[in-house]
Write a structure and sequence with these properties.
Elements: H1 10-18, H2 20-30, H3 33-50, H4 66-91, H5 98-124, H6 129-141, H7 147-158, H8 174-198, H9 207-253, H10 280-285, H11 292-297, H12 321-328, H13 331-348
Length: about 350
């Protein structure tokens, strides 16, 4: 009899998410082995470690996680420090050689997209205002502030439908999806926030004013750090991270659609409307973001408690999420590999598109 998987302790999440930070800090100042350690951790080691343990369970329902928010704040503050530090080390007159600067760019970008983004995503779902603001600040620094509004007000409401710009259609390649998702989330998030203010549900400055001015301030900081090269590096790191955010959205909802009810409304969001992965270490590093079905079913559930639904209840990818995102960069190969997995859910639900 196979023993039941045990919950991953919070220390496991902390180790997986925070270990790259000192490697990046040392690499930015000293280069050499520290840079390679940070890069190989993000690009290779995490995938290898996934093979050691297939999955872990979620923590007990109703358990309290006072240290979980501390971890999220640590990652969020770390992201706000990594961006200017990496910009200085890559674009400034520091000691790093040309190839070391490239390695730092890749390693920092991977950490921002695969660790800082999941932490910011958790923070914008927290009810405490100061936590939400920190998560939004991370997205603003990544020049992607609209995500703090569009993800909560548009994506969670319209996921797996044509009304959600961040749900990829079956057969749609990533390079067609990405600009549609970026522009659509900006516009629809703006529209949703403006509607809340029109109805009097929200007061104060429009958040999009803060998103735009905050991003402009980040770019001014980049200029102050290292002039035009600093500006270009900050832009590059932001685009690197944004591409990973969009890849995650693309992979985690690819081809899955919700049915229309007789009254024209969409069916309720269910476990079948998101792809999941069971790989333990990348899930820990990404704060259980790959347990995406449970997050959509329970948006306020803390990340240590997210559950992995059985394979007959929710679609599951055979690859770790970072690997699936890498495969999606080759659209033809991605469509060929995902087709049999998507076909299972298309056959089980008449609402599913058949364009893959």
């Amino acid at each position: 009899m196979t023993p039941s998987p045990k919950p991953l302790p919070l220390a496991g999440f902390a180790l997986a998410t925070l270990l790259p930070l000192p490697l990046l800090l040392l690499g930015a100042g000293l280069g050499g082995v520290w840079l390679w350690a940070a890069f190989l951790y993000m690009a290779v080691l995490t995938i290898l470690l996934d093979q050691l343990v297939p999955l872990t369970s979620g923590a007990a329902e109703g358990a309290e996680f006072p240290a979980a928010d501390i971890l999220l704040v640590t990652v969020g503050v770390g992201a706000l420090g990594v961006l200017p530090l990496a910009t200085w080390a890559i674009a400034g007159p520091g000691p790093l050689g040309a190839w070391e600067r490239v390695i730092l760019f890749l390693a920092a970008g991977f950490w921002l997209g695969q660790v800082a983004h999941p932490a910011a995503h958790e923070l914008i779902h927290r009810p405490r205002r100061e936590l939400f603001r920190l998560g939004a600040a991370v997205y603003v620094a990544l020049l992607f502030g609209q995500h703090a509004s569009a993800h909560r007000l548009v994506h969670h409401r319209h996921v797996a439908s044509d009304e959600d710009p961040n749900s990829a259609r079956a057969g749609e390649g990533f390079y067609r999806f990405a600009p549609r998702a970026w522009a659509g989330s900006f516009v629809q998030g703006l529209r949703a926030e403006s509607e809340l203010r029109r109805r009097g549900s929200r007061l104060g400055l429009h958040p999009y004013f803060l998103y735009v001015t905050g991003s402009l301030a980040a770019l001014v900081l980049a200029l102050a750090i290292a002039g035009l090269p600093g500006l270009l590096v900050w832009l590059g790191l932001a685009l690197h991270a944004q591409s990973q955010i969009l890849l995650s959205d693309y992979v985690q909802h690819y081809g899955l659609t919700r049915a229309r009810l007789p009254d024209g409304r969409l069916e309720p969001v269910g476990l079948r409307h998101s792809w999941n992965t069971a790989h333990w270490f990348t899930s820990a590093m990404m704060l259980n973001a790959p347990r995406h079905s449970d997050h959509h079913a329970h948006p306020l559930r803390p990340f240590p408690a997210l559950r992995l639904p059985p394979e007959d209840e929710a679609p599951r990818l055979p690859w770790p999420l970072p690997v699936a995102c890498a495969l999606a960069l080759a659209p033809r190969r991605w469509r060929r590999l995902i087709r049999p997995h998507l076909a299972r859910w298309q056959a089980a639900s008449p609402a599913q598109d058949t364009g893959a």
